[in-house]
Amino acid sequence: MKVAVFSTKPYDRKFLDQANTHHEIVYFDTRLEPKTASLAADFPAVCVFVNDNVGAETLQVLAEQGTRLVALRCTGFNNVDLETAFQLGIKVVRVEAYSPYSVAEHTVGLILMLNRKLYRAYNRVRDDNFTLDGLLGFDLHGCSVGILGTGKIGLIFAQIMAGFGCQLLGYDVYPNPEFAAIAQARYVDLPELFAQADIISLHCPLLPETHNIINAETISQMKDGVMLINTSRGKLVDTQAVIKGIRSGKVGYFGIDVYEEEDELFFADWSDRIIQDDTFQLLQSFPNVVITSHQAFFTKNALNNIFSTTIASISDFERGNPLKHELTL
Ligand code: NAD
C-alpha cells in the first residue's frame, strides 16, 4: 500500500525502513497541515506524528484525494479531529503502548536534573569550577509525588518513584488497581494532590477536561516551591500562570518535555534563527526551568515498537482485517 509519511526525520526513515514489510513508503519532511495535504494525493494511507495537523480542514482534503487511513506513530491523538474522520470514512489508528518506560524514565531524569541541578553542575565542571554553591538539592526519599493520570506511563513512573522511597498521591478518572497496589500509593482527590505533593507530574491525555489543568487557580493550591513536571502534552499547562508562579517562588522547579506552543519549535533546528515566542524565551531564562524537546519517547526500544505496530496496522488495513489499534469515538 502507498503510505505518505509526514514530519519525517532521519531516525524515522531508519526505523520505518527496518520495520517495513512490503509497503511503498514516501517520506515528506514537512508537517501535515491543510496546505501540505495535497502531497498525499492518491495515497490510501498517511502516517503522522504529534505535531501534524489532522484537523477537519486537512481531513477534508485527504478524503477528497482518496486517503482512507491515518496512522499515528504516537500515543496521543489530540491533533486529530476524530469526529470529522469518522464522518469522512477515514480510519485512525495509533500506537497505544510502545514503551511506557521511555517516558517514565525521562520524567525521572527531569526530576533529578532539576533537583540536583545537573545541568548547572555539568557546565560548571566543564569550566573547571568545582564549587558547590547554588547546587543544593533535596532527598527524594520521603517526598510526596502527585501523579495526575495513572495509566501506562503514570504507573511505571509511580513504581520507579516508589523505589526512591517517595509517597505517591494518585489522581485518575479511572483508577488503576496496579497503582493502588503499590505500598506507598493512594488515590486522593485533586485538591488534596495539589495541597500535599512536593512534586507533581502529569501523565493524563490532553482532553477538553484536562486542557490547562495546571492554571493560576490550581497552582495557588500547591505547596510553596513545588516541582512541576510535564512530559505529557503542553496544553495541560497554562504557561503564563506557571511563569507567574516561578516569579513569586510558588513554583520552585519546572521541568517540561512538552510545551503549549511547541508545534513550530520542536523537532527543528532554531540555533541560527531568532525565536519569536517570548513566553518560551522567558522560560528559558529561568535558572530553575529545564526543557527538553519532546524526546521522552525517544529510545530505540520505543522506536522499534512504534514502527512495527504502525506497519502491522497498515497491513491489517490493506487486508481488511480488524484494526487492533483503531481509535473510536
Ligand atoms: P494511558 O491512556 O495509559 O493513561 C492515561 C491515564 O490518564 C488513564 O489512566 C486515564 O484514565 C487518565 N485520565 C484521563 N482523563 C483524566 C483526567 N481528566 N484526569 C486524570 N486522569 C485522567 O496513556 P499513557 O500511555 O500513560 O500516556 C499518557 C500521556 O503521555 C499521553 O496521553 C501522551 O499525551 C503522553 N505521552 C508523551 C510522550 C512524550 O514523548 N513526551 C510519549 C508518549 C505519551
Automatic annotation (TrEMBL):
Ranges for domain D-isomer specific 2-hydroxyacid dehydrogenase catalytic: 3-326
InterPro entries linked to this entry: D-isomer_2_OHA_DH_cat_dom (IPR006139), D-isomer_DH_CS (IPR029753), D-isomer_DH_CS1 (IPR029752), D-isomer_DH_NAD-bd (IPR006140), D-LDH-like (IPR058205), NAD(P)-bd_dom_sf (IPR036291)
Record domain D-isomer specific 2-hydroxyacid dehydrogenase NAD-binding: where: 108-296
Alphabetic keyword roster: NAD, Oxidoreductase
Pfam families assigned: 2-Hacid_dh, 2-Hacid_dh_C
Family under the similarity heading: Belongs to the D-isomer specific 2-hydroxyacid dehydrogenase family.
PANTHER family (UniProt xref): 2-HYDROXYACID DEHYDROGENASE HOMOLOG 1-RELATED (PTHR43026)
Protein name: 2-hydroxyacid dehydrogenase
